[in-house]
Structure formats: C-alpha cells, structure tokens
Amino acid sequence: MNSSNQKFLETGRTLADEIRDSHKVMADLWEGLSAFLDVKNCVTVYGSARFKEGHTFYNLARAMGKALAENGFTVMTGGGPGIMEAANRGAKDGGGVSLGCNIILPFEQSLNPYVDRQVEFEYFFTRKTILRKNSVAYVLMPGGFGTMDEIFEVFTLIQTGKLPPRPVVCMGKDYWKHLGKFLRDTMIAWETISPKDLDLALVTDDVQEGIEYIKSGIGRALPGGG
User: Are 24 and 56 spatial neighbours (Cβ–Cβ below 8 Å)?
Assistant: First the structure.
C-alpha cells in the first residue's frame, strides 16, 4: 500500500484528490503547530536512526543532548531511534524537556522511549517544517539521505533569507570532512556557493564548543545583538 507521501506525489490525480489531501496536509501541519506552540528555547538535533547505543556518534549525541538541557534548552528530534534517541535520552539525563516529531516508515522508525511530548506526522515535508520552525539553533549529527535533506534545507533557507540567521553545529568532524572538501574544492571552485557560505555552520567534536557557539549565535541573532 502506498504511503501518504507517495499518494500525494502521484501523477494523474484529480482536483478532488488534491482538495482532499490538502486538508490532510493542513491537519498534519496544524497538529505540530498546536502541540509545540508553547515551546521555547528549542534546539533541533538531526541524525541517523541507524547508530546503536554504545556507538561513538550515539554517545556524542547523548552528551550533546545532556549539555543542551543543562544550559536551559529544550531538545527536539525526529523522535526515532539512533541519534534521535540518544539526543532525547541526553535531554532527560540533563533534566530537560525532550520532544519528538515522529513519522511511520516501513523500517527504522519507531518512537523512542525518552520523548516527553510527541506528534506523529503523515508527511515528511510537514514534519520538517515543525522540526525547523520553533528552534533557535540546529545540531547536525552524522546521518544519511534524510539528514542531508533536512540540514541542506536549513542551509538553503538561511542562505536565501527565508529563515532568520540561526546557529548550526555539525558534530563528528571525521564524518563531515569529505563533505567539507566537496564544498570547498568543488562547489566554491565552480562558484555554485560563496566562500562565506561555509560560515553557516561550526564543525566540531567538542560539545562545550558547540554549546558556546549556539549561545553566542543566538545572542547575535536577537534584535540589537552584537
């Protein structure tokens, strides 16, 4: 059976199909908006569902989630296993609030047990909007196509001014070094991005450096910030 996303993107649809599913999209979006309306000082953590407990990147995400909570941030993730679970678990370790934007997939995705409040989405694009909308900063952990999709949309929106400037921290230097080389040696060389676009994110393995970058970046983004 086709997923809601597949049905929505099929060809040969009727106007009745579009009207019906546009209401489903609005309901999906409204559920996320209303559920997290009161969320403040939120940081979204993106990353793969595939890293298990004990993996270096799982441990790093858990440490980052804990540090975010200890510094007064609410932690939001996609609500699933792997990196998402680790960040939510870290938020609980730090005594903070842990949120999840879950989506049902044929494999990988099930809600992790460390989420205080969650919304389940039918559509990826509505889920991505809610993951992004209320957050004051974003943490990118190692991940696959979905993680790349999510973070490059954040970069695109900041680059084009559609999203207010917000700090982005990429954790896992060894994982991201090849992407950094591609950005520098190919995209900048061919002038498809500007050298200043590399300043859109901090790449680090140091949790405390990431926290300080987020805090200082939020300060600069506020009206009257330096």
Answer: no
Query: Is residue 73, in this structure, part of any structural domain at all?
Result: yes
Q: What is the mean pLDDT of the chain?
A: 92
Sign of the four-CA dihedral 58, 183, 167, 34: negative
pLDDT of the residue at 10? 84
CB neighbours of residue 212 within 10 Å: 15
Q: For 127-143, what is each residue's pLDDT tens digit?
A: 999 999 989 999 999 99
Give the domain extent around 89.
11-221
Give burial (CB, 10 Å; 0-12/13-18/19+) of 204. Answer: middle
User: Cα(64)–Cα(67) distance, rounded to whole angstroms?
Assistant: 5
Q: Establish if 6 belongs to a structural domain.
A: no
Domain-embedded: residue 28: yes
CATH number of the domain residue 93 falls in: 3.40.50.450
The answer to whether residue 3 is domain-embedded is: no
Q: Which pTM was predicted?
A: 0.92
d(CA 89, CA 40): 19
- What is the domain count for the chain? 1
